[in-house]
Structure formats: structure tokens, C-alpha cells
């Protein structure tokens, strides 16, 4: 590809500060930006990035079709919500305009096992208009390709156990609320945990209706099984609140969480496969107390056992770098909703992004 890769930014909050800067520093450029927040609409993206004006004004998402028809970006980065039901409109806008899109939405990483009908609708529209839609981010490398790479050095696997934690303060209010941060324990049980106290048949009905609320590891386990060639026999999840014994201020929630209230939660997903391998993964998302930090800890049990522990990963920056590094992959990929286990491993980009586009 001879020209610079042109990228649209959909969602101009905390994550976009990194994604937009990384786009420029990787030899590409932002050609359009959108948001729903009236406080940022009309601003130059340079003000969001904390640099000189870039000559790109943030516009209302209502204008996305008009803008895409006039300036068709090579790719669109979507950094907004965490569920496919929330992202459907954004992804469909990209799909109907033939614009490749990649999102930090956690469910978008592998939504075929949680929001099949929504994903299929986006897939069909993307195929019709010759573009690729997908989700990626921190999980793409640290919960996905890292684990399957280690599996490739293992003779026999009986179980894979993973645990990863992150500070919801770094990701914005939507993610914090999905984790139940700030709720008293009774409200947490009613609004968050009770959703998983259902049978497999009831869960499937919710999935069919697009009303299931998957934890982040639900998608990860599906991705891992797809990459490893495993057949899912059963999959369940449970959400457990985390608390702190002192009042804890949350700048993202604009509140002080009282001692004993939920600061966030653990979501534990257990997958049994027909091949006998069990995958048990846990993600811990909460408002951190002063002594806490991000961790990523995985163990592959078998012959031999292998453990990898990563302490203090910069999850925000790693998420955003993975998204930008993936841009050539989504441009090169076949049309449709294509999850990243069907793409090459995410690679460091030494050259400008356009030089990796076929």
C-alpha cells in the first residue's frame, strides 16, 4: 500500500488518547473521529491527545454515514463499550460502509459463543461490502496467543488455568459499572451475580435472543478452544464480588466506595471440552486499593506443567498498541466478522503500517 493508512476513531475517551497517538507514531493518520459526548464533539482531536491541533474535528456519531461516504477510512478503531449489543450500531455502520473495524470491546474478541445472531448480522453485512470487523486488545496477546504459543511446546495438556487482574479506573465508567463497582453486596447479587444462576438451556435462550451478559473470559475461552481445535462440551461462569475494608475513592465513578461494598468482581469461566481438556479462566476487574497492581498468571497443566507470571503489565497501553498493530491484519483479512485466532499473531510494527498491507 503506497499511501498512509487512514484511520477513523470511534469513541474519544481515555483509550483514544493512546490509540490515536499510536496511529500517528506508526506512520498512519486519523482522518475522522466520532463521539456521543457533547463535551468533546467539536473539539480537535489534538486537544484529546494533549498535543497541537491535528485538523480533525470530533463529530457526532449521527454523521458517520455521511463522513464515511465522503472520506472512506482504511480502518476504524472503536473504543467505547464492552458488549456486542452496545457496539452493534457502530459495527454495522462500518460494515454497511465497507470500512474495516477493530474494537477494544471485550465480547467482540470472540462473540460467536455469546451474541451469535448479532455477530452473524454484522458478518453478513461486512461480507456484502467487502470489509473485516473484529475485536482485539490485551486479551489477544496475553490471554490468547501467549497461551496457545506455550501450548505448542507442551506434549500433553489436561487443564489450563488463568487469572488476570486490571484496574477498572483505567478504562472508564462503562467498564467500571459492568464490574459492579460501587454496588452494595445485595445489589451486586441482584444486578450482576444472579444473571449466572441459570441452567444451560436458559443461558442458550439468552444467547439466542442477544441478551446474555458474558464475562470477558467467556469470549477468551471460546477463542482458546477455537485456536487449539477443542470442542466445547459445556461452559459456565460465575461472578464474585471483591470488597475492601476501607472506604475507597473512585475517580472514574466520581464517588467513594464505602468499606464492604463491591469494588469490582472476579468472573470465573469454566469450559469442559470433548477432548478432556478443561479451561478455567478468571479475570479480576476492580477499583484498586493503593497496594494492588495488574497481574497476569497462567498455568498449563500436563506434560510438562508450565507457568507464566507477568506482574504490572500496562494493560491500557498494551491494549491500544495491540489494536493499532492489528490494523494491517484486518485490512488483509477476508471479509466478514473474523476473530483474531484466524489471523497471524499480532506483531510489532517496525515500518509504517501501510508497508504491511498487501
Number of strands: 15
Strand ordering within the main sheet: 3-2-1-4-5-6-15
Q: Which descriptor suits the 3D outline?
A: globular
* Share of β-strand residues: 25-35%
Task: Please give a structural write-up.
The model has no long low-confidence stretch (mean pLDDT 95). Strand 2, helix 2 (45-49) and strand 3 (58-60) form a beta-alpha-beta unit. Helix content is 33%, strand content 27%. Helix 1 (14-25) crosses helix 11 and helix 6 (138-151) packs across helix 11. The chain is of the alpha/beta class and 358 residues long.
Task: Give a short summary of the structure.
The protein has helices spanning 14-25, 45-49, 64-70, 84-96, 116-129, 138-151, 173-178, 185-191, 200-209, 216-228, 315-325, 327-332, and strands at residues 6-10, 29-35, 58-60, 75-78, 100-103, 132-135, 156-167, 232-243, 248-250, 255-257, 262-273, 278-286, 295-303, 306-311, 336-337.
Amino acid at each position: 500500500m503506497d499511501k498512509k493508512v487512514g484511520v477513523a476513531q470511534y469513541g474519544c475517551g481515555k483509550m483514544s488518547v493512546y490509540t490515536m497517538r499510536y496511529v500517528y507514531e506508526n506512520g498512519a493518520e486519523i482522518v475522522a473521529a466520532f463521539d456521543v459526548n457533547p463535551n468533546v464533539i467539536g473539539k480537535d482531536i489534538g486537544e484529546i491527545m494533549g498535543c497541537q491541533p491535528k485538523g480533525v474535528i470530533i463529530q457526532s456519531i449521527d454523521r458517520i454515514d455521511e463522513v464515511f461516504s465522503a472520506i472512506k477510512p482504511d480502518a476504524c478503531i472503536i473504543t467505547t463499550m464492552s458488549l456486542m449489543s452496545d457496539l452493534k450500531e457502530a459495527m454495522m455502520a462500518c460494515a454497511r460502509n465497507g470500512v474495516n473495524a477493530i474494537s477494544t470491546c471485550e465480547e467482540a474478541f470472540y462473540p460467536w459463543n455469546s451474541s451469535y445472531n448479532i455477530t452473524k448480522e454484522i458478518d453478513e453485512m461486512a461480507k456484502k461490502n467487502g470489509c473485516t470487523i473484529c475485536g482485539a486488545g490485551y486479551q489477544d496477546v496475553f490471554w490468547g496467543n501467549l497461551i496457545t504459543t506455550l501450548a505448542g511446546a507442551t506434549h500433553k495438556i489436561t487443564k489450563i488455568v488463568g487469572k488476570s487482574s486490571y484496574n477498572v479506573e483505567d478504562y472508564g465508567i462503562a467498564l467500571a459499572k459492568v464490574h459492579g463497582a460501587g454496588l452494595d453486596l445485595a445489589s451486586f447479587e441482584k444486578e450482576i451475580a444472579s444473571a449466572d444462576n441459570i441452567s444451560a438451556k436458559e443461558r442458550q435462550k439468552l444467547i439466542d435472543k442477544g441478551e446474555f451478559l458474558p464475562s470477558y473470559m467467556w469470549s477468551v475461552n471460546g477463542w482458546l478452544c477455537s485456536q487449539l481445535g477443542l470442542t466445547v462440551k459445556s461452559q459456565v461462569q460465575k461472578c464474585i464480588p471483591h470488597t475492601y475494608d476501607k472506604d475507597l475513592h473512585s475517580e472514574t465513578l466520581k464517588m467513594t466506595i464505602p468499606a464492604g461494598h463491591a469494588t469490582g468482581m472476579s468472573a470465573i469461566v469454566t469450559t469442559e471440552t470433548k477432548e478432556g481438556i478443561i479451561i478455567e479462566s478468571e479475570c479480576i476487574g476492580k477499583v484498586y486499593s493503593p497496594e494492588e497492581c495488574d497481574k497476569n498468571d497462567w498455568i498449563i497443566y500436563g506434560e510438562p506443567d508450565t507457568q507464566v507470571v507477568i506482574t504490572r503489565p500496562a494493560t491500557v497501553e498494551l491494549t491500544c498498541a495491540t489494536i493499532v498493530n492489528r490494523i494491517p491484519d484486518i485490512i488483509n483479512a477476508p471479509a466478514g466478522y473474523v476473530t483474531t485466532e484466524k489471523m497471524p499473531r499480532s506483531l510489532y510494527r517496525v515500518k509504517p503500517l501501510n508497508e504491511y498491507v498487501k
